[in-house]
Specification:
single chain; alpha+beta; Beta-Lactamase; Arc Repressor Mutant, subunit A; 6 strands; PAS_fold_3; WH-like_DNA-bd_sf; Transcription antitermination regulator; PAS
Length: 240
Amino acid sequence: MQQPRQTGATFTATRNQPTSGTGGAAHTYLNVGSFRFWFDGERWEWSDEVARMHGYEPGTVAPTTKLMLSHKHPDDREHVRDLLHHTLHSGESFSRRHRFVDTSGGVHEAIVVADRIVDDKSGAVRGTSGYYIDLTGTFDEARHESRQEVLDEALPDLFENRAAIEQAKGVMMAVYRVSPDQAFRALQWRSQETNIKLRTLAKQLIHEVGNLPPVSTAVRSQFDHLLLTIHEHIPPDNGR
């Protein structure tokens, strides 16, 4: 069997401190780590960063499904368990926003961005791989200066291509349920990782989103209802 290939994701460790090259600045304010989940035997692989997110020194623990679920926030655990069950039976990627608790009891808010691992020879889906993006503490003062440097560096592109970037941020906010600032940082991270300009990445994302399958009828119906009743939710002293 040939080495499985990963579609849309690479298993490369990222760091939460400055590094040389193009990717360092983003990691000073966005904690990112990579993982692999092999369906056969439910085998997990965590990068050093993901281990540290959960409170473990690298190499001191072997990740398992049981361990992974034990760290999920009690309010999210059943949801993640159902997602994992769906992933195993559908061959889809393990991607979702949820909370987990580290060994010291600290609660982390994270989004998991992943894609399938596909065998080159058979085309069979062997697993899923991608990134944990830890959004916890992204607003603290210790990281503000580094974050501001990245924003300042990106401002010319931001002003020149504001529409595309704002649209891309809107897509990220809707899909991952994150704030505008968190959505921008996630896009900035991918820009740094791939060494592609932020505006170019944003424009391509908007273009590709148009090719995704339409939302379900149920979601469309709920959005229709929201659109037609949203005026009823606005406080009397705000916009009337």
